[in-house]
Amino acid sequence: MATLKVGLVSPEREVWSGEAKMVVAQTIEGELGILPGHAPVLGVLLDGSVVKIQPAEDGEWVTAMVGSGFFSIANDEVSILAEQAELGAEVNVAEARKALEEARAAGQADATAERRARARLRAAGQDA
Amino acid sequence: MAAQLRQLRQRIRSVKSTAKITRAQEMIATSRIVKAQQAVEASKPYADQITRALSALISHHVGIKHPLLTEQPEDKRSAVLVITSDRGFAGGYNANVIREAESLITALREQGREPVPYVIGNKGITWYRFRNREMAAEWRGISDRPDFASAERVGRRLTEDFLKSDAEGGVGEIHVVYTEFVSMLTQRAQVRRLLPVEVVESTEPDVVPPAYDFEPSPEAALDLLLPNYIESRIYHMLLQSAASYHASVRRAMKSATDNANELLGVYTRQMNQARQAAITQEISEIVGGAEALADSGGE
């Protein structure tokens, strides 16, 4: 079966890369599932959303929080570029909860920070 | 004689401790260069990808309008972002950057533009302060080990000012003066124009970017891509400057250690000479005394 070559990169490092069966990303307009053979797309990610990657070898989904960024799909290569990116497995849950509390306390003015904090928790598999 | 000997001993002690300090600084700098280079490497995938995406977008939509892409001939103010370090001990590193910035500023003045400095790093800030030059913005504490968040902060401020007109204190173009890390031995002060954006075409031949669909629209994608591209450029320049800074520190500290060691050799020789002279003098005094005694006592 054809696979996707996926790279999730932030300016500071390559967060995840490898072969995958499927990628799910969230744009401003809604969720987008990407399978091999997808038409070329360049899309804007929703700031503070979760990207899910199903690696080719084992079925465990990899989740990651992404901030401001975009993704491009071309010839079964998916690159996800986000200024903030963090794997769910690396999220410090307690810290993310605290960030969420702070963002909530700051009120409506900081909607992005709240969304990012929620995304971090969701990527870590927590309720938010 | 004895006073000179003591003085030389003292001097040797002080040179030795200086050499120890500069040697330690040299070793710290060496380990930081490695880290800085790793950071440069780690930032490459992102920078490459974003450049590729942006050139794909622009080449497919020739004539697409975006404020960050358009020249603003009516705005006469030009921002000059000068990247210096917070600390010295780096030989000519900061002097080179500032000299390059000054010649850029002179060139801009000759073109009838009004240059406005934006300065990163303590050394640059104090240089401009001392000369009572006005700075539009100054940042400290990011040049040693730059992180992306700082690059984002600088980038935001610059794009904001770019989008404003002259009357509101904005600028019409943005130049950056930074130091490129060519190799361990060579670092070069460079001037680049950051805004309006000139996207560097990919150098690989025959690579036609795929015909992308844009989600939600090309304009929205450009709105996001351009600021992120600029921030990634600034981040790249900050990393390059940091690596160059550490390389300059290493070189400066290495020559300081070498000089100290050379001085140590000179002083040691002088001290030995002085000691020998003292001994010789003492012997001749004893011999002279004994002879005088023998002459007078024999009678």
TrEMBL record, chain A:
Topology with respect to the bilayer: Peripheral membrane protein
InterPro entries cross-referenced by the UniProt entry: ATP_synth_F1_dsu/esu, ATP_synth_F1_dsu/esu_N, ATPsynth_dsu/esu_N
An example molecular function term from Gene Ontology annotations: ATP binding
Gene3D superfamilies linked to this entry: F0F1 ATP synthase delta/epsilon subunit, N-terminal
Limits of the ATP synthase F1 complex delta/epsilon subunit N-terminal domain: 4-85
Region (Disordered): 104-128
GO cellular component term of the entry, any: plasma membrane
Keyword flag ATP-binding: no
Keywords: ATP synthesis, Cell membrane, CF(1), Hydrogen ion transport, Ion transport, Membrane, Transport
Subcellular location: Cell membrane
Recorded superkingdom: Bacteria
Subunit structure: F-type ATPases have 2 components, CF(1) - the catalytic core - and CF(0) - the membrane proton channel. CF(1) has five subunits: alpha(3), beta(3), gamma(1), delta(1), epsilon(1). CF(0) has three main subunits: a, b and c.
Family stated for the protein in its record: Belongs to the ATPase epsilon chain family.
Entry function: Produces ATP from ADP in the presence of a proton gradient across the membrane.
Protein name: ATP synthase epsilon chain
Protein species of origin: Actinomadura rubrobrunea
UniProtKB/TrEMBL annotation, chain B:
GO molecular function: ATP binding; proton-transporting ATP synthase activity, rotational mechanism
This protein's record includes keyword Transport: yes
Keyword Cell membrane: yes
Keywords: ATP synthesis, Cell membrane, CF(1), Hydrogen ion transport, Ion transport, Membrane, Transport
Membrane topology: Peripheral membrane protein
InterPro entries in alphabetical order: ATP_synth_F1_ATPase_gsu, ATP_synth_F1_gsu, ATP_synth_F1_gsu_CS
A biological process from GO: proton motive force-driven plasma membrane ATP synthesis
Localization annotation: Cell membrane; Membrane
Gene Ontology CC: plasma membrane; proton-transporting ATP synthase complex
Assembly: F-type ATPases have 2 components, CF(1) - the catalytic core - and CF(0) - the membrane proton channel. CF(1) has five subunits: alpha(3), beta(3), gamma(1), delta(1), epsilon(1). CF(0) has three main subunits: a, b and c.
Family: Belongs to the ATPase gamma chain family.
Alphabetized PANTHER family for the sequence: ATP SYNTHASE GAMMA CHAIN, ATP SYNTHASE SUBUNIT GAMMA, MITOCHONDRIAL
Function: Produces ATP from ADP in the presence of a proton gradient across the membrane. The gamma chain is believed to be important in regulating ATPase activity and the flow of protons through the CF(0) complex.
Protein name stated in the entry: ATP synthase gamma chain
Species this chain originates from: Actinomadura rubrobrunea
Higher taxonomy: Bacteria, Bacillati, Actinomycetota, Actinomycetes, Streptosporangiales
